[in-house]
Every structure is written in structure tokens, then in C-alpha cells.
Design brief:
The protein has 123 residues and is mainly alpha-helical. It contains four helices and no strands. Helix 2 packs antiparallel against helix 4.
Length: 123
């Protein structure tokens, strides 16, 4: 959602005197987001994700683990619990990094856009 909003504000800034600065700062935000996105989700989607050799991301791992646990007739085994704890810890780490990006790069981008009064609805 952040990436899409940055791209939209960059598009809205076209023709504005601050367009180059918005684009530059937008690229900085997107570059900061890229490693987090690639850990959480498969950024390069393929119709045949497994066949394409792309490794599962953290979101995929949680979904697969849920399917394993849901298919069992009893409580999750120790391996499933350990994998869940490991995956949740990795997700939490990425979410902490995302929060840090929001508090720094995204905030700086928003402040820059607001400073130049780029219109919400381009006219």
C-alpha cells in the first residue's frame, strides 16, 4: 500500500516544480521497502510460483503451516510449533523494519510533498 501511494504522489507531482524531488524521495522510499517486501511476500508473482523456482516468502510459509496444522486430527507437533515461532519472529522483525521505514523515509516523503502543497486532486 505504501509503494502504491508513493507512486501515486509521484505521478501527481508531475509538472509541479517539486516533481524531481518527489520522484527522488519516492525512489528512496521504494528502495527501502524492497528488502522488506521481498522477505514478506513474493514480489515477482508467477502463475506457477513453485515451478518457477521462486522460494516461498514468510507469508507463504505461514499459509502452508496453517494448512499442515489444519489438516491434522490433533494438536500441532513440536516441529510445527517451532517453525511457527521461527516464522513469526522473522515476520515481527520485518514489521519492525517496516515501522522504522514508515517513521523515517515515508515521513520525510510525506513532509516534502506537504511542504510544496502538491494538490490531492491534480488540476
Amino acid at each position: 500500500a505504501i509503494r502504491g501511494q508513493v507512486e501515486e504522489w509521484t505521478r501527481r507531482a508531475e509538472g509541479h516544480r517539486a516533481a524531481a524531488g518527489v520522484a527522488e524521495r519516492g525512489e528512496k522510499v521504494k528502495a527501502a521497502l524492497a528488502p522488506v517486501e521481498s522477505e514478506l511476500i513474493q514480489v515477482r508473482k508467477s502463475r506457477y510460483a513453485n515451478a518457477s523456482g521462486m522460494p516461498p516468502r514468510l507469508a507463504d510459509e505461514l499459509l502452508h503451516l496453517q494448512a499442515v496444522v489444519a489438516s491434522a486430527d490433533w494438536a500441532p507437533n513440536e516441529q510445527s510449533r517451532a517453525l511457527f515461532a521461527e516464522t513469526v519472529a522473522a515476520v515481527d522483525g520485518q514489521l519492525a523494519r517496516l515501522k522504522e521505514i514508515e517513521d523515517t523515509e515515508v515521513r520525510a516523503f510525506v513532509e516534502y510533498v506537504q511542504e510544496f502543497g502538491i494538490p490531492v486532486i491534480p488540476m
